[in-house]
Every structure is written in C-alpha cells, then in structure tokens.
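can u do me a favor
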C-alpha cells in the first residue's frame, strides 16, 4: 500500500468489534509513531495504554458521553509534557507541544490503518475527568484519546474534503491559481459520477413506483 492509499484507508471509525489488539502491535505502532518530528527533537509526547473495561467506560463518559468509544478494546490517551517544551521555547512552548503531539497522533492513526486496525481521533472530552481517571499530573496536558481496535463498520469509501484550489494560495494570501493542470478535475469528476448515480437511482425508483 502506498502512502496515498494509506491516507485514503484511514478514517474515523466509531464501531468496533470486541476482538483484542495484540500488545506487540500496540508497541510497534507507538514505537514507529515516535519517528514524528518535534521542535528541537524534544519528543514531549506521552501515551497511556488503557485496556481496562471500566476505565474505557469512564473515558467514554468523560468524552461527552461518546459511548461508542468504550467498544474499542484499547484507548490510547495522548498527553504532552508542556512544561518541558516551555523551558526551551518559552511562549512558543505551548504551541510546539501541541504540534509535536499532533504529528505523533497522526502517525499513530496511519500506522494503525497500515496494520489493519481502526482508530478515531477524539478531542471532545473533559480534561479534568480524564486526568482524575488516569492520575495524570496537573502540569501534563491531555491532547487526544484514540480508541483503537478492529472495525465493525463499512469504510466510508470516499472522504468529504474541500477542493484544494479553495484553500491553496500562491505567493500571497488569497491568491488562487486558475491553472486547472495543478489540481486536476479528479474530485469534480467523482462528484459528477456520484450525482449521476443518484439521478439514475432516483429514476429507477420512479419507474418502479409508476408500474
Ligand atoms: C482535533 C480533533 C478532534 C476530534 N474529536 C472528535 C470527537 O470528539 N469525536 C469524534 O467522533 N470524532 C472526532 N474527530 C474526528 C473528526 O470528526 C474526523 O476526523 C473528521 O470528521 C474527518 O473524518 P475522517 O477522519 O473519517 O477522515 C476529531 C478530529 C480531530 C482532528
């Protein structure tokens, strides 16, 4: 699988089977995820691997009651040692710690997808509740909870994304290129195909009902 295929394969999974995840696979994912870049190579990320059923339930409640999370057999809770980064980078430390950990998180999501596992980046949670549940010190930030497991749902085939020509500027902010060769009409073509599929389906239904 090449990188683009892997990027397409990864999606936010919200239905998991109860099949356990091998500790060796978890170890490999965490190990390789730490190849992420970080400011000054400080590597401020920390991971708590949570398998305990009750704890997973509590984490799902702390995540604004996203109860689907608890079905995933593993939760990876991603924390960042912000103070450590601030020592080196002062006011920029907070931003750098967040960016470092975001790169680490994305690596986890991709490595999991590469191993046939599914994930979801969960950011909606009550920090205090998560910290209390897992005894996380006050000076450590929690950035994400990643449910990890085997999917029990269909891949959403294609992901909804803006066309890159909308958010890409050249030489100065707001300056878009008209050159169509830069961003081929790939997306528009697939949108047109989808639309025409819809139209044909609706036409089929109309014919069925008119009989
Ligand atoms: C910072 C961040 C926070 C997110 N928080 C949640 C969340 O709390 N619950 C959830 O179901 N998905 C969450 N997501 C996943 C997004 O909804 C998802 O990535 C987006 O809809 C695109 O879908 P895809 O991941 O399948 O490509 C979060 C993603 C990010 C990057």
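np, heres the sequence
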């Amino acid at each position: 699988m090449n990188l683009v295929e892997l990027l397409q394969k990864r999606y936010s999974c919200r239905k998991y089977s109860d099949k356990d995840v091998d500790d060796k696979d978890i170890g490999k994912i965490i190990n390789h995820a730490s190849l992420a870049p970080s400011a000054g190579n400080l590597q401020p990320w920390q991971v708590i691997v949570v398998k305990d059923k009750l704890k997973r339930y509590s984490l799902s409640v702390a995540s604004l009651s996203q109860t689907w999370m608890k079905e995933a057999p593993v939760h990876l809770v991603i924390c960042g040692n912000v103070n450590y980064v601030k020592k080196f980078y002062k006011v920029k430390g907070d931003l750098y710690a967040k960016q470092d950990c975001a790169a680490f998180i994305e690596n986890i999501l991709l490595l999991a997808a590469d191993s046939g596992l599914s994930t979801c980046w969960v950011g909606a949670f009550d920090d205090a509740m998560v910290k209390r549940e897992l005894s996380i010190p006050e000076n450590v930030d929690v950035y994400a909870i990643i449910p990890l497991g085997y999917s029990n749902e269909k891949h959403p085939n294609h992901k909804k994304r803006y066309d890159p020509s909308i958010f890409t500027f050249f030489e100065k902010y707001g300056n878009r290129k008209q050159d169509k060769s830069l961003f081929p009409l790939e997306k528009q073509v697939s949108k047109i195909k989808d639309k025409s599929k819809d139209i044909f389906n609706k036409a089929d239904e109309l014919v069925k009902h008119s009989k």
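Residues 5 and 55 are 34 Å apart (CA to CA). hope that helps!!
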